[in-house]
Amino acid sequence: MKKIVVLIAFILITQISFGQLRVEFEPNYDESKVPEFEVPDPLRMFNGRKIRNQRRWEKKGRPELLEFFTRNVYGRVPGELGISTWEVVEQSDNALGGKAKRKQVDLVFKKNGRSLHFNILIYLPKNVDNAPVFLGYNFYGNHTITNDVNVIISDAWARNNPSFGIINNQLTEQSRGVRVNRWAVNEIIDAGFGLATIYYGEVDPDKDDFRDGIHPFFYVDAQQRPAADEWGSVAGWAWGLSRAMDYFEEDAEVNENKVVVFGHSRLGKTSLWAGVTDERFAAVISNNSGCGGAALSKRQFGETVARINNSFPHWFCKNFRNYNKNEDALPADQHELLALIAPRPVYVASAEEDQWADPRGEFLSAFYATPVYDLYGEKGIPSKEMPAVNQPIQNTVAYHIRTGGHDVTGFDWEQYIKWATEQLMNE
Q1: Which residues belong to any copy of the 4-O-methyl-glucuronoyl methylesterase-like domain (predicted)?
Q2: Which domains does the chain have, with CATH numbers?
C-alpha cells in the first residue's frame, strides 16, 4: 500500500512538472466563469451605515478603508525616517539637445548605524519656472530610460536580464537606453512638465529578502522580517516616493503642488498606494497595475490574490495571505482603494492583450469608485460599459484600454500628458 501511495505521488508531481495536471492552476480568462460577488459600496461603512456627504466620508469612511488596506493588504510603516542629507551629484543646463535641465540628486537616510541612499534623475523644461513633474520608478536603473550618457548607473542589486546585459545582479553600460520606449521624455518636456525617476531597487531590492533595503531600519530586537501587519515592498516603494516629495518641497525648480505619481505593473500598484497614503501627490496614474492595484480582486480573473502572494510574497503584508483563495471574504475591494484618492485625479489604464492584469476589473474599479468622486462634484466614469479600445475617458477619474500588451507606450503617455495638462495646468 505504501508503495502505491508513493507511486501516485510521484505521478502527480511528474504531471504537474510537465504541465499535464493544470486545471486547478490555470488562470481564468473566461468572463462566464467569474464568480458572482457583491461589490462593496464605498459609501457604506463596514457596520452598514451610509455615508451621504464629504464630511462623513473624510471623518469616518475614508479612515476606516485606509485602516483596512493598511493592516490587511499593503502593511503599515512601523516608524518615521526623514532625509538625513541630500546632494545634487550632477547637473547640466544643456540636456536633451538644450531644451532641458538635468539634475541627479542623492537622498541619504541614516538610522541606528545603517545608511541607505537613492538617486532621483530629474529633467526639467528650461522654459518653465517651478515646473509640474511626473514622478515614477523605473525597473532597471535611471540610465535605462534615456540614451543620455551622463546619467549615472546604479550599483544596487538588480534582477538578472541577460538581454539587457544584466548578469550577476549588476547593472551595466550595456543596458543604457534599453527602456527609452517606455518613457516619453521629450514629449513630457515639450508639454511643459518635468520628469523625475528613481530605480526602485535602490529603495528596496525586488526579492523575498527583507535583510536589505529600507525595512531593516525599523526592526526591533532580533526581528528578521516585517510583522504580519507591517509593510511589504509595495509600501516600501511608496515610502520612497513620499521621500522624493519631501525633497521636491525643498527644490525651487519643482512645483511640489503639481506632482503626478506614475507607475506601471507592480509599480502601478505602488503609485496607487503612494497616492492614497500621501495626499501631497496632485494626481495618480496606474498603468496595467492588475491584482493588488486597480483590478477588482473578487473577480478572480487572471492573476489572483493567491497567485500574487505565492509568486511575490514580499510585495504585500503577510495579512493579505488571509485572502488567498478567499477573495469573497474581503470586506473591501480595489475600487475603494481608488476612492481613497478622491477628490484628486486618478487615471487607470489597461491593455487589450494584458488579460493577466484583468482590464475589465481595472475599468470596473474606476467605475465603482465614481460615487465618492460624486460627493466632491468631480466627474468619474459615467457608465458600466467599457469604452472602445483606444478611446479614452478623460474625466477626473480617467480610463483607457489600448491595443497591445503589458507595457507603457507612446499612446499611453500621449493620454497622460493631455489629461494631466487638463487637470493640473488649466485650473
Answers
A1: 229-377
A2: 72-425 (3.40.50.1820)
